[in-house]
Amino acid sequence: MTVTTAATGRRICTPLPVLGRDVLVPLVTGGTVPYAALDYAASAPALQRVWDDIAAYAPYYGSVHRGAGYLSQLSTDLFEQSRDTVADFLGCRDGDQVIFTRSTTDSLNLLAAVVPAGTHVFVFETEHHASLLPWRTRDDVRVTVLSAPRTPEQAVAVLDVALHGAAKGPKLVCVTGASNVTGELWPVRELAAAAHRHGARIVLDAAQLAPHHPVDVAALDVDWVAFSGHKLYAPFGSGVLAGRADWLREAEPYLAGGGASRKVARRADGGVDVEWHTTAARHEAGSPNVIGVYAIASACKALTEAGFGELVDREQQLLARLRAGLAEVPEVRVLSLFGDDAPRVGVLSFVVSGWNSSHFAAALSAEYGIGVRDGLFCAHPLVRTLLGGESDDPGECGAPEAAPGERSLNAIRVSFGAGTPEEHIDRFLTAVRTLVREGARWSYRTEDGRCVPDRG
Ligand SMILES: Cc1ncc(COP(=O)(O)O)c(C=O)c1O
Predict the structure, then answer these.
(1) Cα(455)–Cα(31) distance, rounded to whole angstroms?
(2) Which of 41, 148, 162, 341 is most deeply buried (CB count within 10 A of its CB)?
(3) Full-prediction pTM beyond 0.85?
(4) For the chain, how far is it from start to end, CA to CA, in angstroms?
(5) What pLDDT digit, counting tens, does each position of 217-236 carry?
């Protein structure tokens, strides 16, 4: 698992095998190169182990909770065992429920649907839209959006003051574990303590934390946690909401239908009476995505068995290499809310003076075969704050329309993880240096809001 690299002399573990590591992509300047996937924060490649597990199971695929046949029973067992695997991976407490959803967005919308009427939700403006927006779908829920803090301590203090002034009644804090823009870690344990001090509950958006860092629900003392399979090396359409059962059990099902209902009977007056499940099934109506769920469980096992601690160390070494390399390019400004010393995961956003970010990202792809992301990363308020409050008219999750050379109202994000070889970081740094020093070798134009190579 560990090797010593000639370049650094340090012991550094090898990347976990992922799909796509040998894919060749065309360069606009001619020829092909192996694709460098540096956009893990959007969607990470599937772990080879996940793919192998799914392939081994696929012939045995059957319906879940709705079949008497052998394969249906096997699939049902696999589905329910996956729930236990995820509960172990997250360090869930006795009585916590693990509900399978489609994604983090779906999980947080589910939670928003079940919070009691009159709940007061507190959320920082720095959140991903998936954490910032779901609460607005409820007319009977009040939302307080807290301003961006500039230190983790300030985040706790701001929340403390806001909760102190809040009226009696159910309260919920929603916070990210790791920013999808800066990669910076939020003081989750301290925020949970502040929430509980004031009788509030807290949900952790672990979309960017879970793939990079062990998450322990009990140790962090969060009430719920949400994450997505596709960011955790299991891109088969499933997500998770795990945590306290009471609000989930007491609310109407998120989706009404088969699987959520225990008993349905016709009433004498012609209507229909329903008795809903009180287990996780209450919010899992419809035929479950057993492939997606098994993929998540497989990824959880793979990360645990590989040694999550070692993976974290390795990622931190790559991150240090990336940050040191970028620090040598004066034109590059790395975006940060909490400052240079803040702990962070392998997610980093930056702008390059003199460059439009979309242009820079397009050139990295077209001329170097490197896949990063440009835009406002579905965290518009945060990116605007970090860029200095400039505003424009971006498309949802995307970049404002801008031609090459126009000023940047968006940023470039590079992100990586357990499958990233050192070589991809080095190639990225070389490409950044060359682009800054020599400019793009190709010309680009804007098409449908995206910067693309001009092919004449
Ligand atoms: C911090 C954070 N929360 C939530 C989400 C939403 O995840 P999904 O698109 O899988 O629902 C993302 C996606 O980028 C994210 O980075």
Answers:
(1) 16
(2) 41
(3) yes
(4) 48
(5) 999 999 999 999 999 999 99
